[in-house]
Specification:
single chain; alpha+beta; Phosphorylase Kinase, domain 1; Transferase(Phosphotransferase), domain 1; Trypsin Inhibitor V, Chain A; 5 domains; six-stranded antiparallel sheet; four-stranded mixed sheet; about 25% strand; globular
């Protein structure tokens, strides 16, 4: 398990605000960059996983200037405890691997676009050839339908005559996004009764079964389908490796020269300096007495900047900052603030601006997302405590950020009994529309639906269904009573 938790300060700069995902040993958090006053995503790993995280960072860095389909890297480093961290842009969207669980099967146009973008990321990774990973291991689908890979993994060795592993991986994901189910041996996409262009179903089936030999070929077939479905398609990535060797040679030479100079300087400095260094502890939020004692325990001396007349005053910052390495017996200047804070009114502000205002006021931010028909996406719709409230410094303020107009995703009803279909619609905040009987078996089973599964509609929308009435029966149509 990771030692990091919400509320921790990583490397004296990144305040962990809320868990975002990841794994038990390499969790991902939403964090506030206290130096630049921005919201970021940060992945942390202890010493055992540090090398793996550094490899992930190297892959992303090697690709971020060659494709728009990877998350931008903002910072990376190591804490004094030996833990590694990777800071990236915070992506607003949904993990691709969680799409089905959250939305149900997706429209064919969206799935085709996702497939093209993931294959583009793989093709670019193969072209750059960092040697550290080319297969997308996790990705986020943004609100603008763009896909950005957040983690890559190495490809397994390809056996003779086998299909391209990137095509197999993409095919399995697309099968699940289209049907809502994992691929099963001998069962094609068409066998799930979903509305999918026949050529797209063939591509997915071929990919899953290992019948596509090259990712470029699958990408081009998918791109053509995406265009016919009016889905956006980016240009095919270049096939030639990037010509950057001359730039890296120059940079390498400069780095080596700089490293040599630094090494020489350090040798001479350390020859005349055998003093020990200590790390400045985090004393923000403490009283002057508590902070002074904590610094003394660490071998440092506290100097107060400002008046100490206010008995409720607490430390709001220190110079040097927490985590800094300083000489033993150094002075640490304490800047004091009132023990209470007035909560800023951030309703109507963009999330980033709201975070900055609350952090500047000495408060901790907790974010919740909720749909809203009245408040634009990304804007604060509510807060607790409200603006103007007097609270203790360090109090947690919860802001509710709008995720946009509420929508309902139409569930897949084909194959369900009529009663089960009604239950599924109610669970999605939708209503049963016109019910048409048609010859078919087994009786009372839904044969088709309109709108199709995966469509995003307004809550309360009616969904029409065609239901099997058994063999040899007459077709009829009924509309449920309100």
């Amino acid at each position: 398990m990771s030692r990091h938790a919400v509320g921790d300060l990583v490397d004296g700069r990144y305040k962990l605000e809320r868990a975002l995902g990841g794994t038990a040993t390499m969790p991902v958090f939403v964090a506030t960059d206290l130096a630049l006053r921005r919201t970021v995503a940060i992945r942390v790993a202890d010493a055992a996983g540090a090398d793996a995280l550094r490899r992930q960072a190297a892959v992303l860095r090697s690709l971020q200037f060659d494709t728009a389909h990877v998350v931008p890297v903002l910072d990376e480093g190591e804490t004094p405890e030996g833990d590694a961290y990777l800071v990236t842009t915070l992506l607003e969207g949904t993990d691709v691997e969680h799409l089905v669980a959250q939305r149900g099967p997706l429209p064919a146009a969206d799935v085709a676009s996702i497939g093209v973008q993931l294959l583009d990321a793989t093709l670019t990774a193969r072209r750059v050839d960092s040697g550290l990973g080319t297969l997308p291991a996790s990705a986020v689908l943004g609100r603008d339908r763009s896909v950005r890979v957040t983690r890559f993994r190495p490809e397994p060795e390809r056996s003779s005559g086998a299909g391209d592993v990137a095509c197999v991986e993409a095919g399995r994901l697309m099968h699940e996004l289209l049907t809502g189910a994992q691929p099963q041996p001998g069962r094609t996409v068409a066998g799930y009764g979903v509305t999918v262009p026949p050529e797209m179903a063939r591509i997915v089936d071929d990919a899953v079964d290992g019948r596509i030999a090259e990712a470029t070929a699958m990408r081009e077939r998918l791109a053509e389908i995406a265009r016919t479905l009016s889905a956006p398609v980016t240009p095919l990535p270049p096939t030639e490796p990037p010509r950057r060797w001359h730039m890296w040679v120059a940079i390498g030479a400069l780095v080596l020269a700089a490293a040599a100079i630094v090494a020489i300087v350090l040798v001479f400095v350390r020859m005349g300096d055998d003093s020990d260094t200590v790390q400045v502890p985090d004393v923000t939020g403490m009283s002057v007495q508590q902070a002074t004692q904590r610094l003394s325990d660490a071998g440092l001396r506290a100097v107060v900047d400002g008046s100490t007349d206010d008995s409720n005053a607490v430390v709001v910052s220190t110079d040097p900052s927490p985590g800094s390495e300083v000489d033993d017996d150094s002075e640490v200047t304490l800047t004091l603030g009132a023990g209470e804070a007035s909560v800023p009114d951030v309703v109507g502000d963009a999330e980033g601006n709201a975070r900055s205002a609350l952090v500047d006021a000495g408060l901790v931010v907790e974010v919740e997302n909720a749909p809203s028909a009245d408040v634009p996406s990304g804007v604060v719709s509510a807060q607790q405590p409200g603006g103007g409230t007097r609270v203790d410094a360090g109090t947690r303020v919860t802001i509710t950020v709008s995720s946009g107009v509420p929508v309902s995703t139409v569930p897949s009803l084909v194959g369900l009994s009529l009663d089960d279909a009604v239950s599924a619609l109610q669970g999605a905040d939708l209503e049963l529309g016109e019910v048409t009987d048609a010859e078919g078996a087994p009786a009372n089973q839904v044969l088709s639906q309109d709108p199709a599964a995966g469509a995003e509609v307004d809550p309360g929308t009616s969904v029409d269904v065609t239901v099997a009435s058994g063999p040899g029966t007459t077709t009829s149509s009924t509309t449920p009573e309100p």
